[in-house]
Design goal:
Elements lengths: L3 H9 L8 E4 L7 E2 L3 E2 L9 E2 L3 E4 L1 H4 L4 E9 L14 E4 L11 E4 L4 E5 L2 E6 L10 E2 L10 E3 L7 H9 L4 E5 L3 E7 L3 E2 L10 E2 L2 H11 L3 E8 L3 H11 L4 E5 L10 H7 L3 E5 L10 E7 L2 E8 L3 H19 L8 E7 L3 E3 L5 E10 L2 E6 L8 H4 L4 E5 L4 E3 L4 E6 L6
Parallel strand pairs: 6-7, 14-17, 14-18, 15-16, 18-21, 22-25
Antiparallel strand pairs: 1-13, 2-13, 3-12, 4-11, 5-7, 5-8, 6-10, 9-10, 19-20, 20-21, 22-28, 23-27, 24-25, 24-26, 26-28
Helix pairs in contact: 1-7, 4-7, 5-6
Length: 410
Amino acid sequence: MLTVEEALAQILADVDPLAGQFTPLEESLGRVLAVDLSSDIDSPPHDKSMVDGYAVKIADVNQHPVSLPVNEEITAGQVPTRELTAGTSSRVMTGAPVPAGAEAVVMVEETELEETESGPLVRIPGQQISPGANILLQGTSIRRGDQVLTAGTRIRPLEIGLLAEIGQASICCIPVPRVAVLSTGNELVPASEVPAAGQIRNSNGPMLSAQARRCQAEVVSLGIGRDDQAELEELIQAGLDADILVLSGGVSAGVLDLVPAALAAQGVNEVFHKVELKPGKPLWYGRADHDGRRSHVFGLPGNPVSSLVCFELFVRPLVDRLAGRASIGMRCRQAQLQGHFRQRGNRPTFHPACYEGGKQGGTVEPVRWQGSADQRALTTANCLAYFSAGQQEFSPGTAVPVYLFEALDD
């Protein structure tokens, strides 16, 4: 059997990000740029005032008090109509262009405006003011033609603002992968139904769909597939329209574990089956190449904990890679074990656990449950704690790796 590391390496082998597509700016949040982008303008586009105040000549205001006539008032969005000459001023608002000839702007709080018969005068006390004071020169932030963002940049609200400033109403970015989710088994009924004898509600499908959405994938729910070869093949065929098809159940060695055969009948080539992993040993992975594109297919064990763990360890990194993200998979931290943990068997264990701490470390306590289907206990987990293979006892205070479901904020 493959190790976890070997299995993940085979899944990610020769996987490139999806081809870039043009997307409206308002829909690009969280996506990754597919191309470098340059500015079509200077920013700021003109010499602008950084404060509300009066544009002046340096020689007029340095050293001695002065009263200067006000040529005009310039607000943001307006253009100056008069050049500033010695012995005059222009009132400018924050963000407005300063008139040609202006050498500095005096803050309005440092002035006094007087209305006279000949027009407004601004009184400015004598002060030492530096050339360019309170003026941001054209192109200080960006010059026309400057490359401002590079391919591979993940788009946050900050980038949205910059993209709007440089005129990128539609941008070429990597699309989010589409993940189709199919739960299999005659025993399953939708969450809206009351199970009859021998039946259980389908919890894996909603859980896996939520996991896919959490890593910002587009989800296609295929519902429940009965243990019938023809029905499974039809649903699998629909699922192969997605970038990733995730099935739960039907990959072990039971009489009705029909998924591998149904996948093969739809042209999905097996890459591996079974991994040295607890839980999740029966994991199945294959690929289907069709219509010039590739679909990645995962057959996850039907046990809820196994499905959870296998998705986080194998499907999530693939979603990140296809989406072009620089960082893939869960974030790893070191934590001190709370309480004892007894490891049994020759497979490494990724045990759902609760981590408390920050980026520099903390403590972790494995979830204690009444069996692998105890989903109520799982709700206390926020990570997977890793325990190496072999018959061994992990004592309190032992440093163990933890893999976080969600990134820490601190």
